[in-house]
Amino acid sequence: MNQKLLEVAQVFFKLGCFAFGGPAAHIAMMEDEIIEKRKWMTRDYFLDLIGTTNLIPGPNSTEMTMHCGYERAGRAGLFVAGITFIFPATIITAILAYLYVEYGQLPEVEPFIYGIKPAVLAIIAGAILKLGKKALKSTELIILGLLVLIVSLLGVNEVIALLTAGVLGMLYFYIKSKAKSNLSSISPFLLFIGINTTLAKLSTIKIFLIFLKVGAILYGSGYVLFAYLDAELVTRGLLTRAELIDAIAIGQFTPGPVLSTSTFIGYQLSGFTGALVATTGIFLPSFLFVLILNPFIPRMRKSIVLRYFLDSVNVAAVAIMLAVLLVMAKETLVEWQSILIALVAVFLTFNTKISTIWTIIIGVVLGFLLIALTT
Questions:
Q1: Measuring CA to CA, how many Å separate 113 from each of 97, 103, 105, 267?
Q2: Does 190 score more than 60 pLDDT?
Q3: Who's near 280: CB < 8 A, 6+ residues apart?
Q4: pTM (2 decimals)?
Q5: Cβ atoms of 62 and 286 closer than 8 Å
Q6: For 6-36, what is each residue's pLDDT tens digit?
């Protein structure tokens, strides 16, 4: 393995071990590691990657790791980054799935994860501030960002908000500049997977196809994943809803992408083989989408019209991150312990050079200690 690939593997394996808090937190941690520390690319280009990643199916933060790996070490870097980021979560989830099947319940983890969310609030806020400075290039983009923030808080689907902002911004800036440029058309990449639901036995091939289908069409949060898996598994009698809820919970409190839920469910359905094929199936479309999309991004940046589109999508993506931060803060900062942890994390994020990973570790320790002292 060459030096760049080794660096990619080390960076994203480390992030995969500590990437708690959902996609916004994952991307904030990547911004710290990739832009601040290693300067693999400009913050402008990082923003473009965020914007385009939000427009395709799949887990946004995992696809961002693939884009970053591609930029650092080519196609091999794409696969190394994605696999090493996913690996810790899938291993942890597989172990928890084994324990769950053997003993019928999840381990008590609340004392250990209590301090994570307050800590990642500060990390997300730091990333929003840095990315926002680059994204808010004009008064019009500030107004567009505020509109996206408002509709996001009102519950409008994030993909609809992003696409609408991109199209409206592109049209506005095109008309304003009266630029004469040709808009190159990029054929959409469509993937349709048919699944034979009449099979009496749930084979590993069928498990793979179920999760491949979900990975190819999934947009949005863990709640959307829950809805898809409920339709694919619970309504067909392959899994109980209680088992699915437990699986989603595992994905929420383990590091890395929430799609590691697939590992847990795959194990429930068909042991370690099921865990392997389910994980492969749900993440495979993301690797293909990024592999196809990434080479087009530099061309999109050179087109005046698509540059307007990307600028608008980028500011919308930052606005959506801000909406996520506000919702998380409302849900998280409800007790004095969580508020205290958040304040410590804010100090560490904005007043020290400490790594975001250490901020999370300190949050975990503080959370454990504060719960222990008050119970």
A1: 18, 22, 18, 24
A2: no
A3: 208, 211
A4: 0.75
A5: yes
A6: 999 999 999 999 888 778 889 999 999 999 8
**Out of 22-36, 128-142, 224-238, 319-333, which region has the weakest mean confidence (pLDDT)?**
224-238
Alpha carbon of 208 to those of 194, 197, 277: distances in Å? 12, 13, 5
Cβ neighbors of 180 (< 8 A, separation 6 or more) are none
The pLDDT, as a whole number, for residue 113 is 72
CA dist 81 and 360 (Å) reads: 21
User: Distance between CA 46 and CA 260 in Å, rounded?
Assistant: 25
Q: How many CB atoms lie within 10 A of CB 189?
A: 14
Residue 43 · residue 131 · CB < 8 Å: yes
Task: Pick the closest to residue 114 from 289, 305, 368 (CA basis).
Answer: 368
Half-sphere exposure (Cβ direction) of 45: Cα atoms closer than 13 Å: 17
CA pair distance 186, 47, nearest whole angstrom: 20
- Torsion angles phi and psi, residue 233, rounded to 5: -115, -50
Per-residue buried b or exposed e for 51-75, using 16+ beta carbons within 10 Å of the residue's own CB = bbbbbbbbbbbbbbbbbbbbbbbee
Q: Residue 137 — very low, low, confident or very high, per pLDDT cuts 50/70/90?
A: confident
Q: How far apart are CA 163 and CA 83, in angstroms?
A: 29
Name the one residue in this structure whose structure tokens are 């300190």: 362
Instruction: Please answer whether residues 52 and 293 qualify as being in contact, where contact means their C-beta atoms are separated by less than 8 angstroms.
Output: yes
